[in-house]
């Protein structure tokens, strides 16, 4: 009898309340803050620039040059990306040293310090505090994007791992939407409120510090990394309930039996491990594509498309909120579909739909002046592209990073994935304006190539991971590698989960 099969079948139901609350506690102070800090900086752009100019005048009795103002503003914005790269590079190590839960709690220090510095910047007359605050916010986001999916993937039952993992995407999009709403003039979008707006990042941090301590550390971390079987059982009883905890414990023990004598890997050790070559290539490709697939270009063009469609300038922020709501709803939909359709269908389908949208968006922008209907078709393409991104690439990428690696390699894998993601984010931020200037509306042909190539790679190279244990997924990659390298199909396979 396959004991894992019996365990999985018992899990095809809704998670219990404790598991859902643990997910909320991890996400609200984690990737929610990433999304919030990405979008909240947009609304007070003009007000912060006025503050920089005024501060410069008070210090040096002269107006700052336009180039100097642009440089300082771009520095404030881009510090978030630099901080994210720093956070991603240390997140995996911290998750091994402090534990997944311990790292998430300690990470709030960066958020609280950032909120304090940005909130005091106007009173202190120091734009330097904004630069440091955005750097700290970025470090917080980088660690959260590395450790939170790790925690969610390790506390979730096998049959609910995809749905639980979608919490990362749902809360990112929820954070983006919340940041957009908070920046409206009816709330905190007025000039006198911008320091308060930027300091509200402390609210989700405070919520996590209040709620997460009531929930346990990752059971997998407790048993495999710390060898604490009693703490693991207690955590499983709280998260999975008395009925299901025995099956979950058996699954974790099987994974531990395959890792006897194996210590947590460093990121550079993954590159020299031939058995993980395809998994590593996959997460590098998917995380790079998540930033290079054109989603940033769509948001860049959204403002232009809304203006061309006749939306008044003062109403465009509300249309922008609509794009955030669109992505948030799609992430929720993906969370509902992922356990029935699977990871491969959603992420590959998302990239295929994005490829189609790139073609139509290029056409609608090219023929913008020929008919009044084309601006509205462009608007449809904007929302369709965002929907396609949220349907798969936006949420499934982090889930696959969790599922393609075993316990000892997973933190290092997230460090590499996070670093690639943030470097790609920085690269597209730097290069994208030049792509737009050079190619104009034809820039989406570049993103068409990226999306179609990634969809092809997913179709041929990535197995479906739905309802499979980490050991089974590893076995599938191992057997695929052996089929390619040996005609007789022989090779070393991890300990079977069947008895």
Automatic annotation (TrEMBL):
<dbReference type="InterPro" id="IPR005828">
    <property type="entry name" value="MFS_sugar_transport-like"/>
</dbReference>
<feature type="transmembrane region" description="Helical">
    <location>
        <begin position="71"/>
        <end position="92"/>
    </location>
</feature>
<dbReference type="InterPro" id="IPR020846">
    <property type="entry name" value="MFS_dom"/>
</dbReference>
<feature type="transmembrane region" description="Helical">
    <location>
        <begin position="163"/>
        <end position="181"/>
    </location>
</feature>
<feature type="transmembrane region" description="Helical">
    <location>
        <begin position="104"/>
        <end position="125"/>
    </location>
</feature>
<feature type="transmembrane region" description="Helical">
    <location>
        <begin position="131"/>
        <end position="151"/>
    </location>
</feature>
<feature type="transmembrane region" description="Helical">
    <location>
        <begin position="19"/>
        <end position="36"/>
    </location>
</feature>
<dbReference type="InterPro" id="IPR003663">
    <property type="entry name" value="Sugar/inositol_transpt"/>
</dbReference>
<dbReference type="GO" id="GO:0055056">
    <property type="term" value="F:D-glucose transmembrane transporter activity"/>
</dbReference>
<protein>
    <submittedName>
        <fullName>Solute carrier family 2 member 11b</fullName>
    </submittedName>
</protein>
<dbReference type="GO" id="GO:0070837">
    <property type="term" value="P:dehydroascorbic acid transport"/>
</dbReference>
<feature type="transmembrane region" description="Helical">
    <location>
        <begin position="316"/>
        <end position="338"/>
    </location>
</feature>
<dbReference type="GO" id="GO:0046323">
    <property type="term" value="P:D-glucose import"/>
</dbReference>
<keyword id="KW-1133">Transmembrane helix</keyword>
<dbReference type="InterPro" id="IPR045263">
    <property type="entry name" value="GLUT"/>
</dbReference>
<feature type="domain" description="Major facilitator superfamily (MFS) profile">
    <location>
        <begin position="23"/>
        <end position="466"/>
    </location>
</feature>
<dbReference type="GO" id="GO:0005886">
    <property type="term" value="C:plasma membrane"/>
</dbReference>
<dbReference type="Pfam" id="PF00083">
    <property type="entry name" value="Sugar_tr"/>
</dbReference>
<feature type="transmembrane region" description="Helical">
    <location>
        <begin position="345"/>
        <end position="367"/>
    </location>
</feature>
<comment type="similarity">
    <text>Belongs to the major facilitator superfamily. Sugar transporter (TC 2.A.1.1) family.</text>
</comment>
<feature type="transmembrane region" description="Helical">
    <location>
        <begin position="373"/>
        <end position="400"/>
    </location>
</feature>
<keyword id="KW-0812">Transmembrane</keyword>
<feature type="transmembrane region" description="Helical">
    <location>
        <begin position="442"/>
        <end position="462"/>
    </location>
</feature>
<keyword id="KW-0472">Membrane</keyword>
<feature type="transmembrane region" description="Helical">
    <location>
        <begin position="412"/>
        <end position="436"/>
    </location>
</feature>
<dbReference type="InterPro" id="IPR005829">
    <property type="entry name" value="Sugar_transporter_CS"/>
</dbReference>
<keyword id="KW-0813">Transport</keyword>
<feature type="transmembrane region" description="Helical">
    <location>
        <begin position="280"/>
        <end position="301"/>
    </location>
</feature>
<feature type="transmembrane region" description="Helical">
    <location>
        <begin position="193"/>
        <end position="215"/>
    </location>
</feature>
<dbReference type="InterPro" id="IPR036259">
    <property type="entry name" value="MFS_trans_sf"/>
</dbReference>
């Amino acid at each position: 009898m396959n004991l894992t099969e019996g365990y999985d079948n018992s899990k095809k139901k809704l998670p219990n309340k404790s598991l859902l609350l643990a997910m909320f506690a991890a996400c609200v102070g984690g990737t929610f803050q990433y999304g919030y800090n990405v979008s909240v900086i947009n609304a007070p752009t003009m007000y912060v620039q006025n503050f920089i100019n005024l501060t410069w005048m008070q210090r040096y009795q002269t107006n700052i040059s336009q180039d100097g103002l642009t440089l300082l503003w771009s520095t404030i914005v881009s510090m978030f990306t630099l901080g994210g790269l720093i956070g991603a590079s240390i997140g995996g190590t911290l998750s091994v040293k402090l534990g997944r839960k311990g790292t998430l709690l300690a990470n709030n220090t960066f958020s609280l310090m950032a909120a304090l510095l940005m909130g005091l910047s106007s009173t202190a007359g120091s734009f330097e505090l904004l630069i440091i605050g955005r750097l700290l916010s970025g470090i917080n986001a980088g660690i959260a994007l590395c450790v939170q999916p790790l925690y969610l993937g390790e506390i979730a039952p096998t049959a609910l791992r995809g749905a639980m993992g979608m919490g990362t995407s749902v809360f990112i999009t929820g954070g983006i939407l919340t940041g957009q709403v908070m920046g409206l003039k009816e709330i905190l979008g007025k000039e006198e409120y911008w320091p308060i707006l930027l300091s509200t990042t402390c609210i989700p941090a405070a919520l996590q510090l209040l709620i997460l301590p009531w929930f346990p550390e990752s059971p997998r971390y407790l048993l495999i990394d710390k060898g604490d079987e009693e703490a693991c059982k207690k955590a499983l009883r709280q998260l999975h309930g008395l009925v299901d905890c025995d099956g979950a414990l058996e699954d974790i023990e099987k994974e531990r039996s395959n890792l006897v004598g194996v210590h947590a890997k460093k990121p550079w050790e993954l590159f020299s491990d031939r058995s993980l070559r395809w998994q590593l290539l996959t997460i590098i490709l998917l995380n790079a594509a998540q930033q290079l697939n054109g989603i940033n270009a769509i948001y860049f063009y959204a403002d232009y498309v809304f203006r061309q469609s006749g939306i008044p300038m003062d109403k465009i922020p509300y249309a922008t909120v609509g794009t955030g709501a669109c992505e948030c709803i799609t992430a929720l939909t993906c969370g509902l579909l992922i356990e029935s359709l699977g990871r491969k269908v959603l992420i590959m389908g998302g990239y295929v739909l994005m490829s189609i949208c790139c073609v139509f968006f290029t056409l609608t922008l090219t023929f913008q002046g020929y008919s009044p209907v084309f601006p509205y078709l462009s608007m449809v393409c904007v929302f369709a592209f965002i929907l396609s991104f949220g349907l798969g690439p936006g949420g499934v990428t982090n889930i696959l990073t969790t599922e393609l690696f075993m316990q000892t390699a997973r933190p290092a894998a997230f460090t590499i994935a996070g670093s690639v993601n943030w470097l790609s984010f920085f690269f597209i931020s730097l290069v994208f304006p030049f792509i737009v200037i050079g190619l104009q509306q034809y820039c989406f042909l570049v993103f068409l190539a990226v999306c179609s190539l990634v969809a092809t790679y997913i179709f041929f190279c990535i197995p479906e991971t739905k309802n499979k244990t980490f050991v089974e997924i590893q076995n599938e990659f191992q057997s695929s590698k052996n089929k390619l390298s040996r005609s007789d199909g022989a090779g070393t396979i991890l300990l079977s989960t069947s008895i």
